[in-house]
Amino acid sequence: MKTDVLIAGSGCSALYAAYNLPRDKQILLITKRDLETNDSFLAQGGMCVLKEEGDYESYFEDTMKAGHYENDPVSVEIMIRSSQRVLKDLIAVGADFAKNPDGTLDYTKEGGHSGNRIVYHEDVTGKEITSHLLAAVKKLDNVTLVEYTKLIDIIEKDNVCYGAIIRKSDEIRISRGGKSLTREEAGFDDNILEKVEADVTILATGGIGGLYRHSTNFRHLTGDSIAIAIMHNIELKDINYVQIHPTTFYSEREEDRSFLISESVRGEGAKLYDKNMKRFVNELIPRDLLTAAIREQMEKDGTSHVWEDMRTIDPKELREHFPNIVGHCEEMGYNPSDECIPVVPAQHYFMGGIKVNHESKTSMGRLYAVGETACNGVHGRNRLASNSLLESMVFAQRAALDITKNYIRGGYGSINFATGENCEEDKRAAILSEVLLDNYMDDDAITEKYRRLVREEIQKADKAAEGFKDEEEYERIKREKEEAKANHK
Ligand SMILES: Cc1cc2nc3c(=O)[nH]c(=O)nc-3n(C[C@H](O)[C@H](O)[C@H](O)COP(=O)(O)OP(=O)(O)OC[C@H]3O[C@@H](n4cnc5c(N)ncnc54)[C@H](O)[C@@H]3O)c2cc1C
């Protein structure tokens, strides 16, 4: 099977990349489950935007401060400056955001933000954004969407990616331009494993929450691209920077996924209490600090959760703004307008990932990474709330534009447009024929190996950080960060 661009994943980053690629390129988008089962659909709180020029410095500073100034300031600037363009695109595909009575956008606030700058749609902003992007992509005649099909490895030679090996399941569903296709119509063979030859490959396989017992992420998000990157010596960055969300619903049930109680609930006034129903922390400090404070309190109290009080929010406002959260609490036997709910921290977001430049290029030729799988340094050590949908889409668009630019210059594909020469058909065929699919037959063994590889890499980075005791080196890095911050202002 041959395609121009292969995209692995169907979250907001994958879809927005597909949406921004040229319509004359054939795009194959594969996803491990169905098209809607991804974290982008779960995002509750909202998406940050630069609502007015006067908020730039403050938004920049809030992002850097939450990230402990370990952020890449250029990435942060790109994200903030691109936010209005992304918002316009989303509105153009039909996404609807909360408005004031005068028709202007209503902005909410979350922890770590010094002002209201987050657009939202009730407490299901991710679903609103991603479902509209998906509907737009489904209409495109150049994008083939393949469900229940996963990326299991890339095809690489001399640090250049020539495509991937995919595993099709029995549940496979294929569509293009709104029509269902058979495997044959889509150009697939009948086997479970298949080699896909691609000019360019984009990794958009989301986070790593599926590796943790308690996580807000879908269980099938296990960092497959990270494992593949490790196997092929593709550079990683900040691999041990994992965000724990301070407030997920505490349940004694063995749940699939921890249910998030969005930060914007606290942004709208919810409070946190210890076992004696006393406040013990400022609820709007950045996530990592709040998580540490909650864990410390739980240890002091000998409890497995703390309490969150939403009675501080007007009951009508609570139901209107957070219907999904209220519904979940009720399902679990709590009425949040009348009583506190138990909450506990859980794994939530992966700041680290495959190292990419500002165009989302990895250290391997013809290979891009976007969304939570990638690390462009926007989030530093800790992500500011509601920056990830935005970051995912901004840098997915930049990947698409960079790929477009390279095609125009004749840089991608077997035909070099600059010279008209068919430069590498034979070379590619030889590279693909070297790949032995028999090595990929045992899916359970591969899954287990990938999980282990990612865990070990995170542990290794954690250990290295612990061993970071050289005071001089520490002072030097601190000074450099402060200088970078001062220079940027
Ligand atoms: C509960 C919750 C609430 C959140 N709230 C917010 C919020 O309010 N604001 C905000 O900005 N961010 C929020 N986030 C974070 C944000 O939703 C994610 O960071 C973002 O959506 C990631 O998008 P993505 O495209 O990178 O990945 P995802 O949307 O997770 O998509 C990953 C895709 O990759 C596919 N995949 C995985 N492995 C493979 C493979 N091997 N082969 C093929 N496909 C594969 C999956 O099936 C999936 O389709 C929240 C996250 C969660 C979990």
How does this structure look, described?
- The chain is of the alpha/beta class and 489 residues long.
- The protein has 2 domains: 2-240 and 351-434, FAD/NAD(P)-binding domain, CATH 3.50.50; 246-346, Flavocytochrome C3, Chain A, domain 1 (Alpha-Beta Complex).
- Helix content is 36%, strand content 20%.
- It is built from 14 helices and 18 strands.
- The chain has helices at residues 12-20, 56-66, 73-92, 125-138, 183-186, 224-231, 263-267, 287-301, 315-321, 323-331, 388-408, 425-434, 443-466, 471-488; strands at residues 2-8, 27-30, 47-48, 118-119, 143-157, 160-176, 179-181, 193-203, 236-237, 242-249, 271-273, 306-309, 341-350, 353-355, 367-369, 374-375, 415-416, 421-422.
- Strands 1-2-5-6-8 form a 5-stranded mixed beta barrel. The protein has a 4-stranded antiparallel β-sheet with strand order 10-13-12-11, covered by helices on one side.
- The radius of gyration is 23 Å and the shape is globular.
- Residues 8-14, 30-33, 38-40, 42-47, 125-126, 150-151, 204-206, 216-217, 220-221, 224, 260, 349, 371-373, 386-389, 392 line the site of flavin-adenine dinucleotide.
Quick overview:
36% of the residues lie in helices and 20% in strands. It has 489 residues and is of the alpha/beta class.
Protein topology:
Elements: E1 2-8, H1 12-20, E2 27-30, E3 47-48, H2 56-66, H3 73-92, E4 118-119, H4 125-138, E5 143-157, E6 160-176, E7 179-181, H5 183-186, E8 193-203, H6 224-231, E9 236-237, E10 242-249, H7 263-267, E11 271-273, H8 287-301, E12 306-309, H9 315-321, H10 323-331, E13 341-350, E14 353-355, E15 367-369, E16 374-375, H11 388-408, E17 415-416, E18 421-422, H12 425-434, H13 443-466, H14 471-488
Parallel strand pairs: 1-2, 1-8, 2-5, 8-15, 14-16
Antiparallel strand pairs: 3-4, 5-6, 6-7, 6-8, 9-14, 10-13, 11-12, 12-13, 17-18
Flavin-adenine dinucleotide (FAD) is lined by residues 8-14, 30-33, 38-40, 42-47, 125-126, 150-151, 204-206, 216-217, 220-221, 224, 260, 349, 371-373, 386-389, 392.
